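Practice problem. Given the sequence and the SMILES for magnesium ion, write out the predicted structure.
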Amino acid sequence: MSLQERYMLKVEGLTVSFDGFKAVDDLSFYVEPNECRVIIGPNGAGKTTVLDLICGRTRATDGSVKFKDHELLKMREDQIVHAGVGRKFQTPSVYEDLTVFENLEISYPSGYSVFGALAFVRSPNVQHRIAEIAETIFLEDLLDEKAAFLSHGQKQWLEIGMLLIQDPELLMLDEPVAGMSVAERKKTAELLNRIIQDRSVIVIEHDMGFVADIATRVNVLHQGKMLSEGSMAHVQADPKVIEVYLGH
Amino acid sequence: MFSDYSMSELGAIFAMQGFAGLILFSVFVLMALGLAIIFGQMGVINMAHGEFMILGAYVTYFTSIFFADYMPALFGTYFFVAMILAFIASGTLGLLVEWSIIRHLYKRPLDTLLATWGLSLILQQLYRTAFGAREVGVTIPSWMMGSMPVTDMIEVPINGIFVMVLAVGISMAVYIMMFRSNWGKQVRAINQNRVMAGAVGINTEWTDRLTFGIGCGVAGVAGSAFTMIGSTGPTAGQLYIVDTFLVVVFGGAGSILGTIASAFSISQAQSIMEFFLSGSMAKVLTLLVVVGILMVRPQGLFSLKLRK
Amino acid sequence: MLNVQSLSAAYGASEVLHGVDINVPAGEIVAIMGRNGMGKTTLMKTLMGIIPEKSGAVDVDGTPITGLKSHQRVAKGVAYVPQGRMIFSAMTVQENVETGLTVTGQSKVPDDIYELFPVLLDMKGRRGGNLSGGQQQQLAIARALASNPKVLLLDEPTEGIQPSIIREMARTLRKIRDQKGLTIVVSEQVLSFALDVADRVMVIENGSFVHDSPRDGIDEAKVSKFLSV
Amino acid sequence: QDYPTAEVNVTGLAVTDTTVTVGILHSVTGTMAISETGSVQAEKLAIAQINEMGGVLGRQIEVIQEDGASDWPTFAEKARKLLVSDKVPAVMGCWTSASRKAVLPVFEQNNGFLYYPTFYEGLEQSPNVIYTGQEATQQIIAGLDWVKETKGANSFYLLGSDYIWPRTSNKIARTHIEQFLGGEVVGEDYYPLGHTQFNSVINKIRLRRPDVIYAIVVGGSNVAFYKQLKAAGINMTEEDPILLTISVTEDEILGIGGENMEGAYACMKYFQSLDNPNNIAFVEAFKEMWGEDIVIGDVTQAAYLGPWLWKAAVEKAGSFDVDKVREAQVGIELDTAPEGYVKVHENHHLWSKTRVGLAKADGQYEVVFETAELVEPNPFPEGYQ
Amino acid sequence: MTLSKNPLFTRHEAAAFAVLAFVIFLLLPAALDNFRLNLFGKYLTYAFVAVGLALCWGAGGILSLGQGVFFGLGGYCMAMFLKLEASTPENTSIQSTPGIPDFMDWNQLTELPLWWTPFYSLTFALIAVVIVPVIFAFIIGVAMFRRRVGGVYFAIITQAFAAILTILIIGQQGFTGGVNGITDLRTLKGWDIRTDEAKEVLYYVNGALLFVVLFIAHFVRKSKLGRILIAMRDQEDRVRFSGYDVASFKIFIFCLGAAFAGIGGAMFTLQVGFMSPTLVGIVPSIEMVIFCAVGGRLSIIGAVYGALLVNWAKTSFSESFPELWLFGLGGLFIAVVMLFPNGLAGVWTEKVLPQLTGLWKSRKSQPQKEEALQ
Ligand SMILES: Nc1ncnc2c1ncn2[C@@H]1O[C@H](COP(=O)(O)OP(=O)(O)OP(=O)(O)O)[C@@H](O)[C@H]1O
Ligand SMILES: Nc1ncnc2c1ncn2[C@@H]1O[C@H](COP(=O)(O)OP(=O)(O)OP(=O)(O)O)[C@@H](O)[C@H]1O
Ligand SMILES: [Mg+2]
Ligand SMILES: [Mg+2]
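Answer key:
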């Protein structure tokens, strides 16, 4: 297996500074296909910023982010999405004025151009796919409901569904279970384990139980740098991690 | 365009125009400060800003009449009284407007644009009905007219200096109020999150009302000062609205310093260009440059960089 | 200290709180637990005067605050850390904390607040909106404490906070309670934190309390069952 | 009855046995209300006086007043209403050229009859309009000749608001100065309507040192211009340079302030201070109707002529029919006009005298010059275009 | 499941279109005399702009305070053609240069400027009516939306454009007719547009065109693009991270609004008989936004009623109370904003419709928009 194929995502020397403050500092890590990578780290470590950099929301000061053979740092947000990278935000962002169905439909990966969107028709294929996704995210009975009426957890799922429908090869989730109830957390872990099958996922989370449920590998970020990397057990035992993050 | 003039003339031209630009700058600052509070700090798009200014101008007019009739000896000083009264009158009207209209619209900032546009129509008609459709002439105390020669080419109008001093004074007061006092902190907190501001103990209703009133009061003072250089009639306020908004937006809506910097650059650009081009073309060019710069810096000259 | 009697609240026509009663003596920490959408936030907002009471009465330290505006309640000694932080993003960290001083009349932030959250001191001049999620959460608590309250309402304060700080927070809240005799009501979904911090645990379900028990001797299994239906 | 309705009104106009309805169409709202108020007052005064004298062909004049709202499409709309719905035989109205241009096709198409009071740029002559103000050459040339002859002025700085009247007028002025007076134009500048900052142009004027500032600034800009001129130390009473304007009537001085205008010269056909019996009676009646404080400018007087000219034409024609009135109108003389004696030229403009006034601190003009003869209107001046 | 159903017209929508057609094509012509009908024809030309604004602002969240620019450009393109047709050498024989528009002659132009000459062709003019505003909108749109200028900033900048264009038109009077505008337009390919019959025909043409525009707008609203617009208005970032180039959608909808406005402007020129810079400036631009707001910014049909109602109110207030009508108009704006934030359409769907259909199922309470926006 060539190096090219071995890694889905290569982050090298990634740096960003805000008015002199280095939020991410010469960071490198690699993500393999079909892997669920969890990034943990203290509040303010730069986790969200890393995702922002990868998906083009924030412009990097330096470094490189290679996704397959695309250099993401040079691309616009929508181009990054087309390349196969999906991103979920920390607070659920769904279109409250639209129904669950329409939310998913908007994310359906065709009709990206202006005229494509005008010509887009709700074909049986599209409907089928939407129904399928809705089932995956436990919302099959709520397709005609306005998103505004969903509970917090359901919104989180919907947003994940909006990403899934695009079938991205790399999925990035920022604190997907924050604010969820215990039961919902379980269901979400199940969901993630299911969708990891055919793609790579990067997750940021503070809920260690949840992390243990899903992670194949864990990165610990601290002050913009990699503090520790390895399996969940390895990381949890690392005294540095306990010191800055887990607590005694 | 420079070739028509000799070197020494050009020097004098730039000096004179620079000074004319300073006066224009002060005018812009005065116009914009009230709006910088109301729009920049409170987020209310007040299209009736010009009408609040004109109220100040009318107050000045009536004060001058009163002084001329009842205390002619003190006529030279009426202007100071007039400015205070203008502040009170426009400010009170502002309180009233906030209470009756604006406070219901804080959640819908763009709608304030429409409502205040309606308000401006009403105020114009009110002035017309009350004070007549014609312009009124405000007599300026004689010590404020005339000019001081600097060189034989350059003369400095006294009312220009007066406007400048006023602009500096009011800017400082507004700056201190908005950025160096607890009051300003509260106003900004409300602007960012009205509900939460209440939940940390800020009396949002009262703060809003007073802030709006002060913004309108400042507009009134500006209107009062403008009787020295402009006309006072029911519709005169409309002349100012575009320039005023542009100055505030160009500066970066949340920043008083930005407003001042923007007033300075726009006025200097316009003033210098006016000399070499026709007035109309100078205006067009200035506007285009401002729009061009705004494309590069969409949030204005002085803007905060905040993550989304 | 905090006395709530048959409090009801509604969004438009739909009633979300159905006549709840809470009685928290001075210095007690109560955790209100419940799944998503059960009415925790609604309760907090109603106590804070952000949502009007439909019926019922609320007293703080014997003085009724029913019907008062938010800022009046703050003056009467209620402070609030909302779910989702809601810090003032364009203002600096220090200014954010200072807004909490409005009702106290002080102009300087007491040092002990920064002692509780040293990060905030480091980032004093940074804009609130540029902080990370967890930092914002700490800022929100600091801001609430600045008003020197008698009753502190915290709505899911652990959301998005790193484990060590969560643990720290439980300790801190108890410390503040001990130092200042504060009464604390905290809503929570995570049982472990609730058990760490609270003297008493109440469970809310569909806008009414279904369980109320002191921490000591609590039937953990039963509460867990409520939380994970 | 002398004039049976069936005979005097064969075209279905708003004429009854006892009344005839005319239209007044001016802006009473918007930016132009400042200027047009005086015209409305004058027209109403004239109509009241005519009614008192027994009306027109034994009929009392009634008025339908419409607001043009300073908006040209509205003018067109209201003109159409007056002609089509209200069937008025004549309309007194409009002030700006733009509003007149907007209503002109409406009047021509519906065969209405408009009395237009403002001094204007000329270049127009419609069978459906009587122009009771002066066209540009009438107003301008006499003034320029006067300033050249009596003051020896040679260099001129032309200045105006940026629209057609100032531009056309300045073109005529420039041609006259350069080709007929052998003078020199040292600068020409235009500012957008509503402009309020004139320090730049004042600096330019200082630099070029013209003998005469020839200013055609209008509206609110006027106030700013004269105040800033004075503040900049250009003292008009010392005539260094001389300020000559054709756009500031007594109405405008009210806003500018007499003390700021003192020493300037204005060139037009009428000043309130004209000393003749017609005018004295007119001023008195005007003040009686509209208040002691009121002032009367050139346009106001021209507006006052409208109803009288129409009355005379209707009576000469013995009919309200527009075609007959038009025919009768040419050649009508009015020796009761406040400005003296006027006569309708076949090009539908008025023969009138042109005068130069010197502005006084009290806001009035003192007449310092008057053409000996009536000046012929020449809306399409050969050689000036 | 109802999912597959996304008919182009629901029953309600079809009914709304039918009622509007009834009002425009049957009711108004039957109820009004020629003069009033012509007035309504003029109001309808504003409705084109309002419909465009309902798309840009209501759906897309892009508030333009410069729609007058596009209305004016469309109107001027039409006016230039008509003016050239009216300026035959015979008609203009008294000019120093016969055969050119009168205002050029007054401004000493001796020759038609080159850029005027294509406007001899009606086809060119008709294309220009749409294309010129679109090109302008495209330039502004690219410059603004690519730089992510939005919200109030965009509104104020478009307002500046309105100011710029007005000053330019007024300043270049030799080429544009200046303040007076382009007036005295007479015939369209020999057909006299000033007669009563012509005005009536134009009214129907106007109505028909408006329906074409409404159908286009409706189609856009109903398409995926329409939903993307709404999504963009509420969660621009999410749309971007769903793989859409947000700017290009904004540019498209802004251009479409401009095209509608251009058509409206051209019809205005025909209906009223002239075009002038007062239609370009800030005041008319704001008024157009108000038409849209009164109609209900989310509803394209509402926008039409809004344009008709406000203008009708303006006309009738000012006829009845020439000295006081601004109080009425200003009061109307304030009242609509404060009492009916969703305008006429809101009153219809929230108050009238439920009453009418009697189908008032007690729905879940509407979620109140979270007040505490960060
Ligand atoms: N635009 C910005 N300007 C200044 N500082 C910033 C900016 N964006 C982020 N920061 C800083 O960078 C650091 C990293 O922030 P980030 O949001 O990535 O943290 P995080 O690891 O996601 O934390 P959390 O777990 O609390 O969400 C923080 O200290 C934050 O204050
Ligand atoms: N703004 C609103 N408008 C209408 N209904 C609302 C609104 N906010 C909340 N609700 C409803 O009120 C109920 C209680 O919501 P609340 O936010 O109080 O729950 P919560 O216990 O705080 O949940 P979470 O753990 O998700 O924060 C829910 O059913 C919710 O759908
Ligand atoms: Mg984060
Ligand atoms: Mg909650």
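Check your answer against the key. The domain at 3-97+169-246 of chain A is CATH 3.40.50.300 (Rossmann fold).
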